[in-house]
Amino acid sequence: MSYELSPAQQGLSDQVRDFADTVVAPAAYEYDTLRSLPYGIIDQMGEMGLFGLPFPKEYGGQGSDYFSLCLAVEQLGRVDQSIAVTLEAGVGLGIMPVYRRGTEQQKQEWVPLLASGKALSAFGLTEADAGSDAAGTKTTAELVDGHWVINGSKQFITNSGTEITRLVTVTAVTGQSTRGDGSIKKELTAILVPTPAPGFTVLPAYDKVGWHTSDTHPLLFDNVRVPEANLLGERGRGFANFVQTLDEGRIAFAALCAGAAQGCLDESVRYAKSRNVFGRAIGSNQHIAFKLARMQARAHSARLAYYDAALKMINGKPFKMEASIAKMIGSEAAMDNARDATQIFGGYGFLNENPVARHYRDSKVLELGEGTTEVQLMVIARSLGFAA
C-alpha cells in the first residue's frame, strides 16, 4: 500500500496549509484570548469546500473522500487545534451520521446546508454517567402523538452552541427489555433535533484548559418535541450506529493529533536554528537536536498511523483497531511534542501568545476526546482476543 499522495490530494493539503499559515495562524492568539469562534474563518472554510469534502456533489459536497478531510484537518491542527476540531467534529460527528443513516429526505434537507459550512451540527452522546459506557444513558425519548418527547441532558458537546448551530443528533433511551439473565437492556435511538427548539437549552460554555476557540456546552432537554420522522436510522440501533461514528471519527481526530505534533516540531526547529546562546544556535547542542529528532519520529509515526487507518476505511477494509491505534499514537505524540517544544522554548514557551504554549494546553484533551487512551487500549486488546 502506497502512502504517496495523489496530485489532487497534495494540492488540497498545500491549499489548506497555506490557508492555515496565512489566515488561521495570525488570528489564533486573538480568538483564543477572546474564547470566541471566528465565524469569518469558518465561513472561508465553507467557501473552500472543506465541510463538504467527503460528500457527493449531489448533496452539495466536493465528491472527494474521508482521507481528504483528514489531510485538511491535519494542516489546520498544526496551527490551531480549535479550528481543526470545529471542522473534524462538524463533519465526522455532525454531518456524517445524517449522510450515513438518514432518509433521502433528511439527507436532502440537512447535508447540503451543513456541507456548505453556513451551519454546524453537533452529536449529543456524552452524559455525566454515559459516554464510552452507553448503558449509562439517562436521556429519554418517548413517542407521543406522532412526536418524540425528549428529556435529559448532555455534556461536552462540540459545536452545540454556536450562532450557526442548526442541528443536534441526540442519543436517547426509547425503551428497554429484559435479558435472559434478568438484567435490563436499554434501547438506544438517535433522533435529530433542529435548533432552536422549545425546551432545548444550551447551557453556559465550559471554562476549559484549552481549545478555547472551540464551542463546547452542556445541553438540557425539557420536553423537547420533534416529529416522529426525525428518527435517524433504525429505532434501537443508536448504540451500534454511534460506535461506527466514533470509529470513523477517531481517524480524523488522529489526523488532528498528527497536525498538532507537526506544528510543535515546526516551531521548535525554527526556534532551535534562530535562538543563539553562548555564541551558537541551541540546535547545535546534541540534547536539543536529539529532542527534535524524537519529535520528528513521533509526528511521522502519527501521520503514518492515520494514513493507514484512513486508507483501510475508504477501501472498505476493517479499520476499527487501526483507528484506535492511530488515535492513541497520535494523541500521545501531540502531548509529548507539546511538552518538548515548551521545554525547548524555555520561558518563551510559557507565554500564551506562543503557539507551543497553546499546543501545550490544547493537547491534553487529545488523550481524552473521542475515547480516552484507556478506551483505545481496550479496543486494541479486544482485537487481539482479550476481554479487556
Automatic annotation (TrEMBL):
Signal peptide boundaries: none
Cofactor or coenzyme needed: FAD
Pfam families given in the database record: Acyl-CoA_dh_1 (PF00441), Acyl-CoA_dh_M (PF02770), Acyl-CoA_dh_N (PF02771)
Domain of life: Bacteria
Ranges of residues in domain Acyl-CoA dehydrogenase/oxidase N-terminal: 7-118
Record keyword Cell membrane present: no
MF terms (GO), sorted A to Z: acyl-CoA dehydrogenase activity; flavin adenine dinucleotide binding
Domain Acyl-CoA dehydrogenase/oxidase C-terminal, residue spans: 236-384
The keyword Methyltransferase belongs to this UniProt entry's keyword annotation: no
Domain Acyl-CoA oxidase/dehydrogenase middle: 122-224
Keywords: FAD, Flavoprotein, Oxidoreductase
The family this protein is said to belong to: Belongs to the acyl-CoA dehydrogenase family.
Protein name (Swiss-Prot/TrEMBL): Acyl-CoA dehydrogenase
Native source organism of the sequence: Cryobacterium luteum
